[in-house]
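Deliverable D4.2, example record:
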Amino acid sequence: MKQITFRKARPEELEAVLSLLKEAAGWLQKKGIDYWQDWISPPPHFIDWIRQGFEQNEFYMTEKDGSIIGCFRLQWQDPVFWGQQKDNAGYIHSFTISRNLAGQGIGKTVLGLIESHCRQKGKELLRLDCGINIKGLRKYYEEYGFKPAGEVTVLGERLTLYEKQIT
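Output generated by the structure prediction step:
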């Protein structure tokens, strides 16, 4: 496999993030999966959420041999989805890899890189969320070692909260 890395996103890459999210939403739509559909034509508050992540230096670009292939947001606190937590955790959002690279194991490679990064930052847990009815994605995360940790509704979307012990 070629070199997979990630780095902090640069301000001018906001459109690349929106494009990756739109691509993922379109793929889900073609598969008949009603998830992330707001990213096809995102409302202003979704774009603001992405901008906020950029302003707080929480967005990362995933690269393969220097070319952008994905993105994610990594936070050290996530009160919107998880409430106030005392645990020392990293929270992943907007995790996506370009669909033309599907089936190559790149997503799991990137999750491993994020896990290592969080461990180096002294984090004990890695957390994320997934639509409660998105069975394929839930299975993907569970096979990687994430365990269901609860449920939450955010902006009308029912989500399963997942966490993985990384220390």
